[in-house]
Amino acid sequence: MIEQDDAILIRQCLEGQSKSFEVLIDRYQKGIYNAAFRMLNNVQDAEDITQSVFIKAYENLNSFDFKHKFFNWIYRMAINESLNLMKQKKRFAGMEADYASTDDSPEEMFEAAELSERIGSSLMCLSAEHRILIILRHLQDLSYREVSYILEIPEKTVKSRLFTARQIFKDVLMKRGIVKNA
Amino acid sequence: MLDEKQVELIHHEMDGMNSEEESARLEELLARNAEAKALFADLSSLSEMLAHIEERDPSPNIKKHILNAIQPQSHSPIRKDSFLRSIFKKLRPLPGLRYGYTFAAGLAAGLVLYALLGNNIQHGRPADISSLYGSMFLDELDESPEAVASFQFDLDEIEGNVVVKNSEGLVLVVLSLNSSNKVEALLEFKEDQLSFWGISKLDDDTNVSMESDKDYIRLTSVADNKYFILFEQQSTSLSAMNLKIVHSDNLLYEKSFMTAKKSEAN
Question: For residue B191, what are the domain limits?
């Protein structure tokens, strides 16, 4: 039903009813912001990405393919923008190095952090391609097919990467003392 | 050692992808295989952990900024004035009138030169743009009107900034690039939103090449310089631009920015 509503809102928008775009912003800005934040672990960057995604979406509404869901379309933009930003800031290499050298005790690293933030920040220890999978599947609750569309990779690849990502993330959480081995 | 199918069965269960029959098969597997049981427990625990991640609320300013950036009466073209008339008409409201008129006069001269000499530029081939400079800009134009967008970038050996100004549909992008290396600045835009009019640079001695098409301008330069690039806004809807800074075929920086405020796009 929401997808149908989205399509109606987009058509209204294209007809000049910009209020309809506000509804789309209200509906999806939180998801986009959170996806970007979990990708980049930086509030300002996540805000920039969110703004940029909605501006680009508005700008390109004419080319929106109604066969797809609007939120998948903007998620794709958000992920691409986040990846571009990461490349620019060369965070990728730094994060992977960070993962390799996480020998500090959990207490030192996360003394004041809440569990939610400890887990969220642990995501940054994953490579970008694995982190995206965890974010889209677990945090955004998207299906394999939706993730496949957003990342422009086959469903089979989504599954294999997701399975690997889970294994690596489990190891990260164990290493950081957040979960214990079963 | 679990085989691929068994691992997939466990992951699919986590994702709610298993049929009843597959779930029953998994139960049997878990009952007789300790490794499968351990993996299932690990993944269940992981899934539970991930459920602890709380969603954050974005700043209310995000929506405000987006709405400020986009134009309510979208996707409808505006009527275009004649070329020179529109320049003078549109620059008239600027606070610094003398700068505005000098700018317009210089722009007209530059554009005539551009039309005469710049055919090869329009077709996307690199060209020397040194003949297009002259008086078509004034640095003091930075002082007015108010900037629509303004940002800096500070990369390894390249730094610069962008200031965007808009006066009733004329968009001036002032791009400063400081680098001792060969650096490429790519400005991308939509042809139904912006139309490239002309370009000038502060330092005539710098070696610059440019190629442009209806939806992009690519400047390749070495050394420090400041570029003044003028566009006409083509529609009342949002107009935006994308800047990419490329060095040795590596994308170092990318940013999208607005070229009109909500009120200016009317």
Answer: 81-258
